[in-house]
């Protein structure tokens, strides 16, 4: 039976770097955010989402204007909930197919920014939370996205805190020194493979 390892971390924690390291080790990695973007290009999903937003979110090419959708749901929690009710089941199905494709693997990593918020962690064998001090996270995002400190803090405020996530996580990796981070990840993966 393949073990699902959930991996998450707040914005700027460096979870993408960790995911790329895990991929380089040959483990199958499912990235929920990428899957979400993919399913939002399915014709039937486009139709449902466009209806939800009163036919006002289609681009001339027939695809969804994700930037416009994001700006709307950022200020409307109810609409966000309805959007998630369309996208999440499609992503869940997508993940089931990914699991079938990787049925011979010992472990599959499932990366999700909202692993705990969406309660997807409950279906995981174990979870790894990538953390970093707030100041480090803020500086990383400012450099990466070229945005202001206020914008970064506003995004962080919309996520569960590391403290809240830590209560639900099986393992916590503080990502400051990359060599140390990779060493910790290796130890965790080896522990999971042995058990």
UniProtKB/TrEMBL annotation:
Q: Which gene encodes it?
A: coaE
One Gene Ontology cellular component annotation held by this UniProt entry: cytoplasm
Question: Annotated pathway, please?
Answer: Cofactor biosynthesis; coenzyme A biosynthesis; CoA from (R)-pantothenate: step 5/5
EC number per UniProt: 2.7.1.24
Identify the domain of life: Bacteria
GO annotation terms (biological process): coenzyme A biosynthetic process
Q: Where does ATP bind?
A: 12-17
Q: Specify the species.
A: Paenimyroides marinum
Cite the entry's keywords alphabetically: ATP-binding, Coenzyme A biosynthesis, Cytoplasm, Kinase, Nucleotide-binding, Transferase
Class in the EC hierarchy, top level: transferase
Provide the family line: Belongs to the CoaE family.
Membrane-crossing segments per the record: none
- Tell me the compartments it is located in: Cytoplasm
Q: Which GO terms describe its molecular function?
A: ATP binding; dephospho-CoA kinase activity
Question: What's the protein called, per UniProt?
Answer: Dephospho-CoA kinase
Q: Return the Pfam families for the record.
A: CoaE
What function does the entry list? Catalyzes the phosphorylation of the 3'-hydroxyl group of dephosphocoenzyme A to form coenzyme A.
Gene3D superfamilies registered for this protein in UniProt: P-loop containing nucleotide triphosphate hydrolases (3.40.50.300)
Catalytic activity field: 3'-dephospho-CoA + ATP = ADP + CoA + H(+)
């Amino acid at each position: 039976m393949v073990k699902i390892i959930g991996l998450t971390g707040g914005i700027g924690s460096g979870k993408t770097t960790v995911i790329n390291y895990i991929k380089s080790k040959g483990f199958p990695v499912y990235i929920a955010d990428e899957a979400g973007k993919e399913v939002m290009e399915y014709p039937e999903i486009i139709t449902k989402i466009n209806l939800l937003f009163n036919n006002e979110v289609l681009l001339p090419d027939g695809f969804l204007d994700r930037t416009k959708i994001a700006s709307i749901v950022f200020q409307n929690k109810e609409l966000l909930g309805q959007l998630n009710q369309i996208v999440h089941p499609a992503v869940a199905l997508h993940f089931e197919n990914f699991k079938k494709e990787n049925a011979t693997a010992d472990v599959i990593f499932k990366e999700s920014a909202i692993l705990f918020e969406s309660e997807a962690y409950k279906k995981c064998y174990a979870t790894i939370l990538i953390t970093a001090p707030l100041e480090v996270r803020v500086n990383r995002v400012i450099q990466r996205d070229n945005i202001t400190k206020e914008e970064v803090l506003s995004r962080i405020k919309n996520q569960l805190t590391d403290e809240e996530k830590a209560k639900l996580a099986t393992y916590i990796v503080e990502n400051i020194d990359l060599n140390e981070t990779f060493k910790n990840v290796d130890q965790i993966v080896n522990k999971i493979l042995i058990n």
